[in-house]
Amino acid sequence: MSKSPINKANTPESFNDLKIKTPPTSTAGFEALKVAFGHAIKYMKLTDTFKISLKMNQKGGFDCPGCAWPDPDDERSTLGEYCENGLKAIAEEAQNKLVTADFFLKHSVDELAGLSDFEIGKSGRLAEPMFLEEEATHYKPISWKDAFNKVGKHLNALSHPDEAVFYTSGRTTNEAAFLYQLFVREFGTANLPDCSNMCHEASGAALSETLGVGKGSVVLDDLYKADLVMVIGQNPATNHPRMLSALEKCKNNGGKIIAINPLPEAGLMKFTNPQNPIKLLTGGTKLADVFVPITINGDVAFTKAVLLKLLEKEEAEGHVFDKAFIEKHTYGYQAFVDNLKMYDFNECLKLSGISKNIFDEAFNLILNSDNIIICWAMGLTQHENAVDNIRELVNLLLLKGSIGKEGAGTCPVRGHSNVQGDRTVGIWEAAPQAFLDKIEAKYGFKPTSKHGYSVIDAIKAMNEGKAKVFFGLGGNFISAVPDTNYSAKGLANCNLTVHVSTKLNRSHLVTGKEALILPCLGRSEKDFQKSGQQMQSVENSMGVVSSTKGVLEPCSNSLKSEVAVVCNIAYATLKDRTKINWLNYVDDYSLVREDIQEVVEGFQDYNQRLNQPSGFYLPNGARKRKFKTATGKANFSINKLPNWKLKDSELIMMTIRSHDQFNTTIYGLNDRYRGVFNERRIIFMNREDIKERGLQEQQVVNLKSEFNGVVRKANHFKVVGYDIPKNCCATYFPETNVLVSIDSYAHTAKTPASKSIIITVSVE
Ligand SMILES: Nc1nc2c(c(=O)[nH]1)N[C@H]1C(S)=C(S)[C@@H](COP(=O)(O)OP(=O)(O)OC[C@H]3O[C@@H](n4cnc5c(=O)[nH]c(N)nc54)[C@H](O)[C@@H]3O)O[C@H]1N2
Ligand SMILES: Nc1nc2c(c(=O)[nH]1)N[C@H]1C(S)=C(S)[C@@H](COP(=O)(O)OP(=O)(O)OC[C@H]3O[C@@H](n4cnc5c(=O)[nH]c(N)nc54)[C@H](O)[C@@H]3O)O[C@H]1N2
Ligand code: SF4
Ligand SMILES: [Mo]
Q: What residue stretches are annotated with the Molybdopterin oxidoreductase domain (predicted)?
């Protein structure tokens, strides 16, 4: 009897050998260089490490597959424009070990599912297409042709195209993403969930409504010029390391920084620039001027407290708000002020968990700054009231006129290296009608206007038998999504699950009745087609589109590019129903870009402009104070305080990333900047909370969440006392995704609330 899908979806409960040290007071420096190169040399060929370190993020080189932080427009450091985690991302992709047919012959699916995520990832790069037959215990090799036909056969056997789900992860390039959504729409559905649904969807929803563009408004240069940068719900030292260089530059120019976070993340405190030999010798730069140790989900309350005090000052003294901006560019000011006055400052401050002293320090910086940038990431977007978090901060920027001018604006720091680009070119289950009309005009078929499934809807549809084929272009769906056990049942309900992947992951092991693994080229590898070596393109967090071209030889001769996989599947599925000459695109990707420029705004002269060394900026209305909202102005919004309350024994838990992982890819078992080594099954708890419960450091506990009467459990975690606000705790994602209810998500955006899970801890 093979393991159940639930059993396979969960990470094994075994421990490693936990060591705790005092967290460092500064990040990066020599240590980061040492760790990064140590990692690269351990897993990659030495010559490849050398090639990579010369070409990564250099003009005309290839774009780091790590996060979406932008590269400087002008000078690029000769000491290398990358960071520790960028190099780790490459070392993971350019591994010198291969997962071949022999590997799958030796190891059954059940056996592989018993490995930790770290071990699964370290098996190596996927080297050839594999197929899992119904009831089979092992994957077997399959030819590319048979694999494409199998997908086509399953898709064509569905009673409606809406019974298929087409997921995308954010590493996919613009070219592959555009073709993929085009195929999905011609096939007849808009079921295009993507990792963005679990990530910055709440930012997109809040910013579109208030500022008319679902992206941030600042460029890198603005960060250097800001009076004040607020970094909220973000851990840049781990997740966007080169952002610290930009913050350092801001400080050197006299700017101030406020960090708002339940954890005193080391990178927010002090940074030693590894690309600056002088700083390496003289010690780092202090970053945060004020650290605000907010309670989890206390951000609306804190922002309201700031807004109330600003209003009080404005009414008493004037000159606090930018009245000319409010008058000319905004809508809804009076209704916003009337609503704000219904809240009590002390009540808000109490809910935020912040002392009056710290509040005053932060408040004075905000009050005295004209050019404010607010940066944020998952600490704001993964709550039920995530959209409120962001809208309330937009209110703050609007009052100060801090939008659409130098050194001011919104900066949602995007996650995956091309997640923003994927959405720009059409990976969207709720694409605007104007975009669909352009597709119709160009290709002559009518895409459905009906919205498709987002991630949450797709999981429900699979569970309810409404979706029967799951196709993933990149990513690791089962480990990334909430409610692991429910989601696993959904996938197991499918007739076919397909993954286009570079690396083996848990999603290949939690399958439908049949399953396919289609191995593809990675970003760092050369992609040769009929017209020669292909270049592709990506969009970073600040709306710059630039080229990327691999430098390494492909790890296996049996790989195909994502573009080739998508086009061949489209061809095998649509056959003579299609109006598109799919296989032409495979020969020459510049043809895809010619199409994109006709369909997507801002891409004119795409091929030519991509040859500019730093790429080009996409248009952004908010940057120019042109707000494309329903009112034609920047909208104030009215937001409520969250209404959850903890019972005596309960804690609020956030699921966060360690320093040694990229989402579900586990690079290693350390979390160096938090002083945790050689273990992931831990729970960070406030030391008083530990004491009150009669627990000891490193004691093994079980975690339980209860949502709408449904109990979910994650067992076997070691307690780690940490500097975290009372009643708050933290665990690593994905080990505790099993505790996140499928029904707990952000209003308007449906981002799973994986940063505010109410749990109890019990002794094992
Ligand atoms: N090396 C590396 N780089 C990555 C990734 C990776 O896994 N590894 N992932 C990429 C992706 S897809 C993304 S989306 C980004 C994620 O980047 P981050 O958002 O920085 O990642 P998280 O670890 O989820 O960290 C969330 C931060 O928010 C804080 N936080 C949690 N809850 C709250 C809250 O209620 N209020 C406030 N103010 N803060 C809170 C946490 O303490 C933590 O510091 O990084 C990208 N870059
Ligand atoms: N509890 C909890 N859950 C979360 C989060 C959280 O903070 N807490 N964060 C959420 C966020 S922000 C995100 S973005 C999602 C991430 O969700 P996903 O994007 O689905 O997950 P990743 O771990 O980034 O995907 C890794 C896999 O992508 C494949 N891959 C890597 N590079 C390539 C490539 O170039 N091409 C192809 N085709 N495949 C490739 C590899 O096989 C690898 O195993 O997770 C979400 N889930
Ligand atoms: S900051 Fe992000 S994009 Fe830049 S090198 Fe590091 S991981 Fe890569
Ligand atoms: Mo993300």
A: 125-501
